[in-house]
Design goal:
The chain is of the alpha/beta class. It has a domain of about 150 residues: Rossmann fold. About 50% of the residues lie in helices and about 15% in strands. It has 9 helices and 7 strands; from the N terminus they run βαβαααβαβαββααβα. The strands form 2 sheets. Strands 2-3-1-4-7 form a 5-stranded parallel β-sheet, sandwiched between helices. The chain has a two-stranded antiparallel sheet with strand order 5-6. A hairpin with a 6-residue loop joins β5 and β6. α2 crosses α3, α4 packs parallel to α5 and α6 packs across α7. The longest helix has 15 residues. The chain is globular, with a radius of gyration of 16 Å. The structure holds BIS(adenosine)-5'-pentaphosphate. The site of BIS(adenosine)-5'-pentaphosphate has 35 residues, from α1, α2, α3, α6 and β6.
Length: about 220
C-alpha cells in the first residue's frame, strides 16, 4: 500500500508525531505537522513565526485563518499529489471545514489516537527534542544512545518550551475545549478510526497498520 490521505487526531503527546514519521515514510507521502511548520517559522523569525509564538508559548491555538492558510499553501505542493499525512490539523471545526473546502470533501481517513491524560502528561514532560533535526526522545521511554545528545545528528537535546507541566495542562484544557468535538464530527461522517495509543511505539504502529488496512 502506498499513497493515501490521513489525518492524525488526538490529545497533545499521544504519540501522533512518532507514528506519523513512520507511516509517512512507509506510504511515501508527506508528513505535514502544523506544529513543526510553526516551530520552524518561530526559529527562523518569519512573520508567521512572530504571529504564532505567543499562542504556542501559552499552549493556546494559533488563530484558524493563519493555520488554515499555511496548510492550504502546503497542499498545493507537488509532493501532495500521492496524498498526505496531516498531523495536528485540523484542530477546530473551522479548520475541518476549511480542509473540506480545500479537498472538495475528500479529506481522507481520520485516525484518532486515544490516551489517558495522566499518560499524556508523563509523555510530554519527559519528551526531549533535537532542535536541529526535530527528532523526539523521551527520558524514560525512548532514551538517546548518549545522554542528552541526538542519535541522528549529535546536537544537544532540549525540552520544548511548551512541554512544562503547567503548559501541558493548559494544552490539554484547550484540546478538550476546542478539538475534542472533532472526534464526534468525523465519527458521524464515518471517517474515524480509533487506535489505542497506550503501549510501546512498535505495538501502537502494528495496531495502526491493521486499523487503516481495514478501512
Ligand atoms: P503540536 O506540535 O502539534 O503539538 P501537539 O498536538 O500538542 O502534539 P505533540 O507534538 O506535543 O505530541 P504528539 O502527539 O506528536 O506526541 P509525540 O509523538 O511527540 O502543536 C504545538 C502548538 O502549535 C500548539 O499548542 C498550537 O499552539 C500550535 N498549533 C499546531 N497546530 C495547530 C493548529 N492546527 N491550529 C492551531 N494551532 C496549532 O510523543 C510525545 C512523547 O512521548 C515523546 O517523547 C515520545 O518519544 C514519547 N512517545 C511517543 N509514543 C510513545 C509510546 N507509544 N510509548 C511511550 N512513549 C511514547
Amino acid at each position: 500500500m502506498a499513497g493515501g490521505r490521513f489525518i492524525f487526531l488526538g490529545p497533545p503527546g499521544a504519540g501522533k508525531g512518532t507514528q506519523a514519521v513512520r507511516l509517512a515514510k512507509d506510504l511515501a507521502i508527506p508528513h505535514i505537522s502544523t506544529g513543526e511548520i510553526l516551530r520552524s517559522a518561530v526559529r527562523d523569525g518569519t512573520e508567521l513565526g512572530t504571529a504564532a509564538k505567543g499562542y504556542m508559548d501559552r499552549g493556546e491555538l494559533v488563530p484558524d485563518e493563519v493555520v488554515a492558510g499555511v496548510v492550504a499553501d502546503r497542499l498545493t505542493s507537488d509532493d501532495c499529489e500521492a496524498g498526505y499525512l496531516l498531523d495536528g490539523f485540523p484542530r477546530t471545526l473551522a479548520q475541518a471545514r476549511a480542509l473540506e473546502q480545500r479537498t472538495g470533501g475528500n479529506v481522507g481517513q481520520v485516525v484518532y489516537f486515544e490516551l489517558s491524560e495522566d499518560e499524556v502528561v508523563e509523555r510530554l514532560t519527559g519528551r526531549r527534542t533535537c532542535p536541529s533535526c526535530g527528532r523526539n526522545f523521551h527520558v524514560k521511554y525512548l532514551k538517546p544512545q548518549t545522554e542528552g545528545k541526538c542519535d541522528t545528528c549529535g546536537a544537544a537535546l532540549i525540552q520544548r518550551s511548551d512541554d512544562t507541566e503547567a503548559t501541558v495542562l493548559e494544552r490539554l484544557r484547550v484540546y478538550r475545549e476546542q478539538t475534542g468535538d472533532l472526534v464526534g464530527y468525523y465519527e458521524e461522517r464515518n471517517l474515524l478510526t480509533t487506535v489505542s495509543a497506550a503501549g510501546a511505539p512498535n505495538d501502537v504502529y502494528a495496531t495502526l497498520k491493521t486499523a487503516i488496512a481495514k478501512e
